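Saturday, quiet lab. Running sequence design on the structure tokens for the scaffold JK sent over.
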């Protein structure tokens, strides 16, 4: 199993040799960490032993994006304001508290005075945005932390269904993409009729060859990789869309823990500043884990705006038990 799946998959997913990641990688990624647990999971899939709810889940009728839209609408109903298409450029502080957030949007720079700033930015980026700058040892920790990038490639095909499976995994290193899913197979509605979508996950860092390719070229390469795997695309490709994520996965190398702790400790000294979420806590988590973090943070905020740091510290301990569910 290790040589056929985990080792080549690690090289592809993390961009390093399988010996390089810390043991945390396995602890966060592999829920069934023993032979008995694996056998129990397999047994639960056998007809007659399989529970009625095994393998079932809810999927939004119009796709995963409905979750984000529902959360945004609910927040706006409570007078939250969203600014899209903006990039944070600087966070001002006085050594004790954050004072302002600067961001660029539509070619202009905007400064917003703040009493508090809650950030889900990559923690290393948050450190680099702080002004005045972080101490040298904190900056060095931020430079040493690493995220693995990813390109999402979407093929819109003119056919009812490409495969009966919701996801395919590709451990072999001859096929650069790590996983392909068909979102339509997650839903019971089978909509839209006559069309389906394939989504490939291509581990790739900025600066690598695939990162600079056009959508059309990436779409062609995806079709070639699928053909190599015995899954040829025979239908007409109506459209190719890509999304590039520079900070898709935290890389848990053997020195990451001390570097993360250095940044986390320094940022924790600022009143009103909170870093959380998948990237903010350098956590390889699922969406429901990230939502749990958000709910926990909100529960720590009192009616008077005071933040319960002791309660948040307890929640942080709970987050350490999160294990990725694929």
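Result came back. Writing it out in full:
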């Amino acid at each position: 199993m290790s040589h056929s799946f985990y080792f080549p998959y690690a090289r592809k997913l993390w961009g390093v040799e399988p010996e390089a990641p810390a043991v945390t990688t396995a602890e966060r990624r592999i829920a069934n960490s023993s032979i008995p647990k694996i056998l129990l999971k397999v047994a639960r899939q056998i007809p007659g032993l399989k529970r009625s709810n095994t393998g079932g889940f809810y999927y939004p009728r119009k796709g995963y994006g409905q979750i984000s839209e529902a959360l945004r609408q609910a927040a706006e109903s409570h007078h939250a304001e969203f600014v899209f298409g903006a990039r944070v450029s600087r966070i001002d502080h006085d050594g004790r508290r954050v004072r302002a957030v600067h961001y660029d949007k539509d070619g202009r720079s905007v400064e917003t005075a703040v009493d508090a700033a809650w950030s889900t930015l990559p923690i290393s980026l948050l450190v680099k945005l702080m002004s005045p700058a972080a101490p040298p040892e904190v900056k060095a920790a931020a430079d040493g932390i690493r995220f693995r990038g990813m390109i999402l490639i979407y093929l819109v095909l003119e056919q009812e269904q490409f495969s009966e499976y919701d996801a395919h995994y590709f451990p072999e290193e001859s096929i650069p993409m790590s996983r392909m899913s068909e979102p339509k197979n997650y839903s019971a509605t089978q909509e839209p009729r006559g069309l389906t979508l394939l989504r490939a996950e291509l581990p790739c860092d900025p600066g690598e060859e695939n990162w600079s390719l056009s959508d059309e070229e990436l779409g062609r390469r995806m079709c070639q990789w699928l053909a190599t795997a015995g899954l040829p695309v025979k239908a007409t490709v109506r459209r190719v869309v890509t999304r590039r994520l520079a900070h898709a996965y935290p890389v848990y190398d053997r020195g990451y823990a001390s570097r993360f702790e250095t940044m986390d400790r320094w940022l924790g000294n600022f009143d009103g500043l909170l870093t959380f979420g998948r990237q903010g806590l350098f956590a390889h988590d699922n969406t429901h884990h990230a939502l749990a973090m958000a709910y926990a943070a909100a529960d720590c905020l009192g009616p008077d705006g005071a933040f319960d740091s002791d309660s948040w510290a307890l929640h942080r301990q709970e987050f350490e038990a999160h294990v990725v569910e694929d």
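Notes for JK: The chain has a mean pLDDT of 87. Residues 216 and 240 are 6 Å apart (CA to CA). Ask whether to fix the surface positions before the next round.
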